[in-house]
Design goal:
The structure holds 2 protein chains of 2 kinds. Chain A is mainly alpha-helical. Chain A has 13 helices and no strands. Chain B has 15 helices and 21 strands. In chain B, strand 2 and strand 3 form a beta hairpin.
Chain lengths: ~300, ~525
């Protein structure tokens, strides 16, 4: 199934360039390029081959680790992606970790005080945050933390050789992405917790005098969390996609800005390599989420 | 003794084990950045200038550079035989010790300053490097590198090397823009032949020049770091002071608002900004703003081949109905000068001093439309996302045309689609808002409107044999007076065709901290190497 998804993505990409209006080569080469140069560039990018041939050439190259050359910089696409991907992965995973870390106490608080004023406030906040786009949250955080308070840097990725600097550059972008999923996961987890908290064994635990925090975090949460683990794969894919806006706003080096620049410049080899990689990561993330779900939910395992 | 029952074999991965592994992985990931830098000391801070670019660096090879951002970095890395003095339309000798143009203009004898080294230990500049640098762009080396900028050197026959430091540039025919655009700007930079051959296609991101700075690091979409070239030969010191900065960092910040925040936060020292963002810093203590003219122009063009716009009275009506002053005020915040023709007044030659500046005349527009039988005509207005405030401009035009009785639909297209439509799509283009960039010679402003640019960049579909012939005449004329007359005549003919509403001659708006004294090239590019610090 994963391989089929990837093949469909590659065929779609090959078709897309023919469907999109405009000549990608003309845009890349600029107004002074003559027809001979344009034709040469089309040959270099394999644009004169049929769609199946383009997909086959790309596949055979990708297997060898050759994703083509970025047309503007003439650097291997794989090199550009390797330089950009870690920053985007770190951003997406950090955002996910922050979202989960925020969602759990929010969900437990809401579920423990179901119907109360705290539950209503947290519910309204969660829904409110879900409806705000991540780039709007990003701009607000930028103004707050950088301009008004001066706590954190505004732009850039920071340097990995200076870990505190790197972390400082990561905080605002990660928060911008995390808040929406924190609200979403909190609502889902709250619903799952309410279902679990209604079970007989929870009533029995209370009757035995177990502390409420142990009931919520050790008993109920453990049984409610499988329902959100399945979403982790979706969340990761969404976060990688949303990272584009955040990387542009915060001027972070990442897959998002790489693809954004390549798309506006019609740098087809880089667009193709980047999109295929995102598809691979999305498929892997969902696969991992499925495996994780099976691991923590015994009911999904095969009966031997 | 009965066998001891053993537990049945279970799955390899149990839930507890999986959750524990997940928690450990999460901690490991979170601590990776912390661990990565353990034990490395921070660098001592050097005198560093941080400048904003609005697009990331693409390719720093003069034969393949992609645009403004590349040019601003290249100014620090390369030098040519002659370059523009900072802030002036005059050129001065840089690498050339002697530079003599023959009587017929077809030969340029040059000799180089001795002992000017290239970066990265690639030896000193020789005439062979000059030959290689120019001939490769012209497309007369083997193999042909197929540079996009062959037209800059289209007149080159050869560069003959007459000695280690001397040579003759021979031209096939006169090419007037050579002295204002080709030689003093990017296509006149001298590269190390050995470095280009060594580095191949990687030269674009690992360039070697003779400039006062060398590229030491490029972190894509983050920054380009230039460090002072310790062995700099001083070719520019005949007309400029010694460079001040130890390092220059170019930070690409795509979003102007994010860049404004970065300037406020002290992460950028200086850079270009959009008008509204620039306005924030005007008059603010600790900041400075400035504007610098360019050779660019923005316009509302009309495709004369489209059925809706074939009648000149319709085009004249549109020209009468559009309120260009309102567009300048509303869409560009009054930051730009109103244009009256193609060539701006700061161009060395070619400006049409008494070009008409039409005043808005809605009644006149209605009259013209009635004569043409074109009341209630529907016009499609297109623009591109990479233009300045396309939505505002188009909405004002739409409202203006509605006053005259024309219905107008707006279509803001992706830049790639807008600029590269050809064939049938190009024929369907009607009214459009866009701008073109210019160089310090009017040839480059006019070249897009000749007949051989039909279906390419001549969006107005303007075809006039006299216009073409004047362009060719001016191209090969050595006399600036005659060229001036030719370009004015071309603009008159263009104006008579009524296929354009001139909007603005855009300026580059800069903002930065007060302590920096900027240096800007004649075409609005930052000369980072020449920035100073205010005492």
């Amino acid at each position: 199934m994963a391989i089929l998804v990837l093949l469909i993505v590659m065929v779609f990409l090959a078709l897309l360039l023919h469907i999109l209006p405009g000549n990608p080569v003309t845009l890349m080469l600029g107004p002074r390029a003559d027809p001979a140069l344009i034709e040469l560039a089309r040959q270099q990018m394999d644009l004169n081959s049929s769609v199946p041939a383009q997909v086959w050439h790309f596949l055979t190259g990708a297997v060898r680790g050759d994703l083509g050359r970025d047309f503007l910089t003439q650097r291997p696409v794989s090199e550009l992606i390797v330089g950009a991907l870690p920053n985007t992965l770190i951003l997406a995973l950090t955002s996910l970790a922050l979202a989960v870390a925020a969602a759990i106490p929010l969900a437990v608080l809401s579920a423990a005080r179901q119907g109360g004023w705290l539950d209503r406030i947290l519910g309204t906040m969660s829904v409110g945050i879900i409806s705000i786009p991540s780039y709007v949250i990003g701009m607000v955080l930028l103004l707050l933390a950088t301009v008004w308070l001066g706590w954190l840097p505004a732009i850039g990725t920071g340097s990995v050789t200076d870990p505190l600097d790197y972390l400082a550059h990561l905080v605002l972008p990660a928060l911008s992405l995390a808040m929406i999923w924190a609200g979403y996961l909190a609502r889902l987890l709250r619903s799952a917790l309410l279902e679990v908290l209604g079970q007989d064994y929870i009533r029995a635990a209370r009757a035995y005098g177990l502390a409420e925090w142990r009931i919520h975090y050790q008993l109920a949460l453990r049984n409610a969390i499988p329902s959100v683990v399945a979403l982790i794969g979706v969340a990761l894919g969404d976060l990688m996609g949303s990272a584009i806006f955040i990387e542009v706003i915060f001027t972070r080096n990442g897959l998002g800005t790489l693809l954004y620049n390549a798309t506006t410049q019609r740098d087809y080899p880089t667009v193709r390599g980047g999109v295929v990689l995102i598809a691979v990561l999305f498929v892997l993330a969902n696969l991992l989420a499925d495996l994780a779900n099976r691991a923590i939910n015994p009911r999904l395992r095969e009966v031997r | 003794m009965p066998p001891v029952p053993t537990a049945p074999p279970g799955p390899l991965l149990r839930r507890r084990g999986f959750l524990a592994a997940l928690a450990a992985a999460g901690c490991g990931l979170a601590s990776a950045p912390l661990l990565a830098g353990c034990g490395r000391a921070a660098d001592t801070r050097s005198k560093t200038l941080v400048l904003r670019l609005d697009v990331d660096m693409g390719n720093l090879d003069p034969a393949f550079a992609t645009g403004r951002s590349d040019y601003e970095i290249m100014e620090c890395l390369y030098e040519g035989l002659r370059n523009y003095r900072p802030g002036s339309l005059d050129t001065a000798s840089t690498l050339a010790d002697e530079f003599e143009v023959s009587q017929d203009g077809l030969e340029i004898k040059f000799s180089l300053k001795r002992g000017i080294p290239f970066h990265a230990g690639y030896g000193e500049v020789t005439a062979a490097d000059v030959k290689y640098s120019y001939e490769r762009i012209a497309g007369i080396t083997t193999p042909n590198i197929n540079s996009s900028y062959q037209s800059d050197w289209s007149a080159l026959a050869e560069v003959r090397v007459t000695g280690t430091y001397s040579g003759v540039i021979r031209l096939k025919h006169l090419f007037a823009p050579l002295y204002r655009t080709t030689l003093p700007l990017e296509r006149g930079y001298v590269v190390s032949q050995r470095a280009v051959l060594d580095r191949g296609s990687g030269f674009g991101t690992a360039p070697v020049g003779t400039g006062p700075y060398e590229l030491v690091a490029w972190e894509p979409r983050n920054r380009a770091v230039l460090r002072r070239f310790a062995d700099y030969g001083g070719a520019r010191y005949g007309y400029a002071d010694k460079v001040l900065w130890d390092e220059i960092h170019f930070r690409p910040v795509l979003d102007s608002s994010s860049a404004a925040i970065a300037l406020t936060a002290g992460e950028i020292d200086f850079g270009p900004f959009a008008p509204l963002d620039n306005k924030r810093f005007a008059g603010e203590q600790g900041y400075q703003t400035m504007e610098h003219p360019t050779f660019d122009y923005s316009m509302l063009g009309m495709n004369v081949n489209h059925a809706n716009l074939r009648d000149i009275r319709v085009r004249q009506a549109i020209r009468s109905a559009v309120d260009a002053d309102a567009i300048l005020a509303a869409a560009f915040d009054g930051a730009y000068r109103r244009a009256s023709a193609i060539i701006p007044p700061n161009m060395p030659i070619g400006h049409w001093d008494d070009a008409p500046v039409p005043k808005r005349d809605v009644d006149g527009a209605r009259r013209l439309l009635a004569e043409a039988g074109a009341r209630d005509l529907q016009i499609a207005l297109t623009s591109s996302t990479d233009q300045e405030n396309p939505r505002d401009v188009c909405q004002i035009v739409q409202a203006n045309l509605a006053d005259a009785g024309l219905r107008c639909t707006i279509d803001i297209q992706d830049a790639g689609s807008f600029w590269t439509l050809g064939g049938q799509a190009q024929e369907q283009r009607q009214l459009f808002y866009c701008g073109f960039s210019g160089l310090p010679d009017p040839y480059w402003s006019m070249v897009w409107f000749t007949s051989d640019q039909l279906n390419q960049w001549n969006f107005q579909s303007y075809s006039d044999a006299t216009f073409d012939s004047l362009q060719q005449q001016a191209l090969q004329s050595p006399d600036n007076g005659l060229r001036q007359a030719d370009y004015v005549a071309m603009q008159r003919r263009w104006d008579a065709a009524a296929n354009t509403v001139w909007l603005a001659w855009p300026q580059v708006l800069f903002a930065g901290r007060d302590g920096v004294v900027p240096s800007i090239r004649v075409d609005g590019r930052m000369l980072a190497w020449n920035f100073r610090e205010r005492a």
